[in-house]
């Protein structure tokens, strides 16, 4: 049985917002042509940022008024 996804245990908007703060390049959707390798790299970076965000929230991170969406 696979382990549960840590990002699914928390509010998705909070995980997404923190992930964007942790790695803004991973969420940069420019309209310029890219290679498949560049898209894959961005997708991997995005998933990694989401995992780190979920772990930070699980460890007790909470948004303050300065970082709240």
TrEMBL record:
<protein>
    <submittedName>
        <fullName>Uncharacterized protein</fullName>
    </submittedName>
</protein>
């Amino acid at each position: 049985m696979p382990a549960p996804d840590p990002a699914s245990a928390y509010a998705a908007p909070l995980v997404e917002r923190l992930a964007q703060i942790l790695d803004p390049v991973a969420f940069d959707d420019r309209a310029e042509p890219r290679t498949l390798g560049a898209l894959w790299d961005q997708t991997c970076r995005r998933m990694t940022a989401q995992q780190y965000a979920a772990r930070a929230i699980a460890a007790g991170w909470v948004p303050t008024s300065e970082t709240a969406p």
